[in-house]
Amino acid sequence: MREAVIVEAVRTPVGRRGGGLSDMHAADLSAVVLGALAERTGIDPALVDDVVWGCVSQVGDQSSNIGRYAVLAAGWPETIPGTTVNRACGSSQQALDFAAQAVMSGRQDVVVAGGVEVMSRVPLGSARATGMPYGPKVLARYDGFSFNQGISAEKIAQKWGFTRGELDEFAVLSHERAAAAQDVGAFDAQIVPVGAVTEDEGVRRTSTVEKLAALEPAFLDDGMIHAGNSSQISDGAAALLVTTPEKARELGLTPIVRHRAGAVVGADPVLMLTGPIPATEKVLAKAGVGLPEIGVFEVNEAFAPIPLAWLAETGADPALLNPLGGAIALGHPLGASGAVLTTRMIHHMRDHGIRYGLQTMCEGGGTANATLVELIS
């Protein structure tokens, strides 16, 4: 089977809700990263076999196959197709896995993977506003559980015995790491400025455990989950170019990483957000790589208990987890987040000579993706 490599990865800054990206249509924001991908690689967009685009709330601005309209907004040839993937928060990570599978199988040679979400314009829950997606049989199977991710995060915190102080300390650490990364320019090479927006808008440099302690719980009166230890509602887009090593050489491109393995799992839909734990085990087994060999982990910070439970179960080195901060500080533009995390991770790997990176995302409904990539020296 052929190898799949990533030769370039770019992202917009992640904008906060109502911030600098909030006036942009999702297709136009997508066009920013598609254009930058073509410019940075010098590739003729006509060579792209497909664009696989993640997006979660596929209504309004983001309806009717936003992946296709992203291609058209970018001014790329009309002959290039585009499709839209929804695996909840892991949508663009799944888009990357689909792109890698297409290239490895030989069905396609050059594929763009990525995603977008402009949550300022298409709010969280918009797709559920006019109906109930679960159906009576699903609700009956799980005793009428509301499938509320915040409640699931509370259940995880209780099951693993985390205190609110521990959750808030992790949240503050996310902001501290993100601020430190911004200060040394760790994101500069990967970010495509959008107008006056040149850096991620969500980082709160004055966040403290004491300030977070004053915030009211968001889901249970006596709960531990609140706005400060949860991911931020955000806007953003990211794109990656996937091909084979042979095609990369033909095009004069230098691969950054090879896609070693991808995995997706289902887990308890009531706890919902624990899937990254078995997904990590599965992707490591598929790749034949041991946990101690991994030099960086990106575990999406949907809520603070998620990466903390993952740490507790895997025994990974906490210093290698989300070293540049995560979604608590940098935001979580749903359909773009998988591609944003991959972009952040592989640039970090190249900057620091890290051989293996592992990324995993919890997802609504109790699924999770995990992807393992290897730096190409």
Automatic annotation (TrEMBL):
Coiled coil: none annotated. InterPro entries: Thiolase, Thiolase-like, Thiolase_C, Thiolase_CS, Thiolase_N. It comes from the Bacteria. This is Acetyl-CoA C-acyltransferase. It is an enzyme of class 2 (transferase). Residues 254-374 form the Thiolase C-terminal domain. GO terms for molecular function: acetyl-CoA C-acyltransferase activity. Belongs to the thiolase-like superfamily. Thiolase family. NCBIfam families: AcCoA-C-Actrans. Residues 5-244 form the Thiolase N-terminal domain. Keywords: Acyltransferase, Transferase. It comes from Streptomyces cylindrosporus. Its EC number is 2.3.1.16. Pfam families: Thiolase_C (PF02803), Thiolase_N (PF00108). PROSITE patterns: THIOLASE_2.
